[in-house]
C-alpha cells in the first residue's frame, strides 16, 4: 500500500514509519523540517516537506495514496485552539476528498468526545471514506515536558510546552510533587507511543465498511502509583501527585501566560479525567492494553534525566 504519515519523526510517527516500511508498504512522511529529509530516507521512506496548514500541499502529497495517518500537532501560540484545530481538520478533509483516498486513521484523544472545543472528529465524519479514530490515553512521553521542573530549576513558563493529548501538569522537584487538576488516587490510563503506533499500523492496512473508534492504552494505575514509579527510577521515591482545584490550575496557566482559551480547554480536559468519565469511556469501548509498561519507560526517562543533570 501507499501510505502517507503525518507528524514527521515524532514519538508516534517514527515507530509507525518503521512498522509500515518493515511490512513492505511505500511510506511518504510529511514534515515541516527539511533537515529531516535524509533521516526519513534512511528509514526507507520518502519525505514530503510542507505544512498541514497548506491544503494544496496536502492534496498534492495525498495524490495516489491508499491511506493516510492524520494528526494535528498542538500549537500553543494559538489564541483560540478550537479555531486552529478545526481549520487543520478542514484542510485534511479538503485534501482527502480531492485525492480520493479511501482509508484514513485520525489521531484523536481519549477525552475528545467529552470536551467540545477539542473534538474535531465530527469534521472528519463528513468524509465518505473508511475512518478509524484513535483515542490514546495519557502519553508516557509527556513526562519529558516537565524534566526541568522536576529538578526544581524550571519556571511556570514551562507549561507552554504542554502536549495536547497528555499530562497537563506542574512539577516541583524541590518538594517532590507532581500537580494537576487530576491526580492523587485518580485512576487513569497511560500509553506508550509505540503501542499507539502498533494500533495505527493495524488500522491503516484495514478497510472496514464503517467508521470505528479505538481507544489505546498501555497500563492503568492511580496517579500516585505512576508518580512512585517515576520517582523510584530517578531517585526521588517520595514523589507524589497532588490534586489541584480547577481554579488553581487556571491560575497556574495564567501565570504561564498561556492563551486563555487554550488554558480553559486543558483545564476542562483534565477535569474530565478527574471525574472518571474518560476512564469510563475507555473501558466501555472494550479497549485492549498494549505491552509497554510504565516501569520500562521510567528507566528510559531516568537515563535522560540523569544525563542532563
UniProtKB/TrEMBL annotation:
Any one Pfam family match given in the protein's UniProt record, by short name: NAD_binding_10
Domain NAD(P)-binding positions: 7-113
InterPro entries, per database record: Ergot_Alk_Oxidoreductase, NAD(P)-bd_dom, NAD(P)-bd_dom_sf
Protein name: NAD-dependent epimerase/dehydratase family protein
Lineage: Bacteria, Pseudomonadati, Bacteroidota, Chitinophagia, Chitinophagales
Amino acid at each position: 500500500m501507499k501510505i502517507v504519515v503525518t507528524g514527521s519523526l515524532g514519538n508516534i510517527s517514527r515507530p509507525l514509519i518503521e512498522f509500515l516500511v518493515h511490512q513492505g508498504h511505500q511510506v511518504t512522511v510529511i514534515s515541516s523540517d527539511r533537515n529531516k529529509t535524509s533521516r526519513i530516507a534512511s528509514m526507507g521512506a520518502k519525505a514530503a516537506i510542507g505544512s498541514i496548514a497548506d491544503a494544496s500541499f496536502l492534496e498534492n502529497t495525498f495524490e495516489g495514496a491508499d491511506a493516510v495517518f492524520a494528526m494535528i500537532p498542538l500549537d500553543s501560540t494559538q489564541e483560540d485552539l478550537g479555531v486552529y484545530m478545526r481549520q487543520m481538520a478542514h484542510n485534511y478533509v479538503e485534501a482527502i476528498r480531492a485525492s480520493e483516498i479511501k482509508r484514513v486513521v485520525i489521531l484523536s484523544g481519549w477525552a475528545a468526545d467529552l470536551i467540545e472545543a477539542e473534538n474535531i472528529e465530527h469534521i472528519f465524519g463528513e468524509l465518505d471514506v473508511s475512518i478509524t479514530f484513535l483515542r490514546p490515553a495519557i502519553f508516557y512521553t509527556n513526562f519529558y515536558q516537565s524534566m526541568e521542573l522536576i529538578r526544581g530549576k524550571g519556571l511556570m513558563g514551562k507549561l507552554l510546552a504542554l502536549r495536547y493529548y497528555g499530562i497537563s501538569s506542574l512539577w516541583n522537584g524541590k518538594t517532590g510533587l507532581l500537580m494537576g487538576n487530576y491526580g492523587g488516587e485518580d485512576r487513569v490510563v497511560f500509553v506508550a507511543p509505540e503501542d499507539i503506533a502498533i494500533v495505527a499500523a493495524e488500522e491503516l492496512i484495514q478497510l472496514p465498511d464503517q467508521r470505528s473508534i479505538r481507544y489505546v492504552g498501555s497500563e492503568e494505575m492511580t496517579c500516585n502509583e505512576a508518580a512512585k514509579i517515576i520517582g523510584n527510577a530517578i531517585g526521588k521515591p517520595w514523589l507524589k501527585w497532588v490534586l489541584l482545584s480547577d481554579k488553581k490550575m487556571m491560575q497556574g496557566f495564567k501565570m504561564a501566560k498561556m492563551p486563555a482559551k487554550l488554558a480553559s480547554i486543558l483545564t476542562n480536559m483534565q477535569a474530565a479525567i478527574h471525574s472518571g468519565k474518560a476512564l469510563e469511556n475507555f473501558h466501555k469501548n472494550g479497549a485492549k492494553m498494549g505491552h509497554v509498561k510504565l516501569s520500562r519507560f521510567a528507566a528510559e526517562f531516568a537515563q535522560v534525566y540523569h544525563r542532563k543533570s
